[in-house]
């Protein structure tokens, strides 16, 4: 029966190719857009991911997302350090500031002020220079994508002098980070220098980064910090979830990507259903012949499901292969909006299961005429 199923399927090569290409396109659209959506959610917590030494973030109680950080009193750092279960705590500063080049061009940048001594929150992947170079006077580290944005056409190099907030700054290193939610160039520096660049005179701390001791879990220590200080303390994982939830709820990104993904589903179902319907109608006499010689509807349905499984697997492999090739070519770039984007294994597996199930359902629904055909038509005309 399997041989007969493949014989019928491959008899009309044009419709077979149309089925495979339709499923491939639907797979490409669904998996690619899902992966970009997941990567953007991942990028929305870029600073939290970079500061992976800390497992607790302390902030004002009104903060809902990473980009909404409000200044807090510097005394809060010592208050957090005094909480039982806290191994260490350091200040962390975030601010948007204006960078000015020597030729007068201006760009808005995301200023990240890390602790002067511990360097907690420093970029993880350096391309030029070292994190320790931030100890030099007026030193900053810029991400490579931001550097090419500020200095288009210039080869990456260190030693360039710029001005941030009317304060002299020297680029001593270039780092690589994935795409960020805001899209602004990232500038890392010591917190004390960052506060001067932003001309902050009051409460020069945005967050307090802390590490729980081995004796207590981060969740328990975060609750203790909240009770002792009155500040909002969230574990690293919880704060990332808070940020992503806020973006999903208020930014509209979920709706935009959801519409595109749904288009892929509709296109896939429409192409597969229509093609299988035409395929079944044109081969109606062949199926009627099988029924005339005693083949049951269940056996015919099994043949059709084998055909659907075959074309769905072939189409999925072509579509997911194209999507992975796209990310392999774009995600390794040092600059550009798609840098660092990737396809999570869950998306790979989930899209595969989805495509197979949808294809089989679409073909089963579209071949109802085959299951109800009268075998006597074989002997007519």
What percent of residues are in strands? 15-25%
Terminus-to-terminus distance = 27 Å
Number of structural units classed as domains:
2
Count of alpha and pi helical runs:
13
Number of DSSP strands?
A: 10
Identify the strand order in the major beta sheet: 2-3-8-5-7-6
Helix content: 40-55%
Shape: elongated
Low-confidence stretches: none
The biggest sheet, with number of strands, parallel, antiparallel or mixed sense and barrel status, is:
6 strands, mixed, barrel
Integer average pLDDT: 85
**Whole-number radius of gyration?**
29 Å
Given helix and strand content, the structural type is alpha+beta
Order of helices and strands: HHHEHEEEEHEEEHEHEHHHHHH
What features would you describe in this structure?
The protein contains 13 helices and ten strands. With 381 residues, the chain is an alpha+beta fold. It folds into two domains: 2-44 and 252-379, no CATH class; 73-230, no CATH class. It has a six-stranded mixed β-barrel. Helix 2 packs antiparallel against helix 9 (253-282) and helix 2 (13-43) packs antiparallel against helix 12 (345-366). The longest helix is centred in the C-terminal third of the chain and has 34 residues, at 297-330. It is elongated, with a radius of gyration of 29 Å. The two termini are 27 Å apart. 39% of the residues are buried. The mean pLDDT is 85.
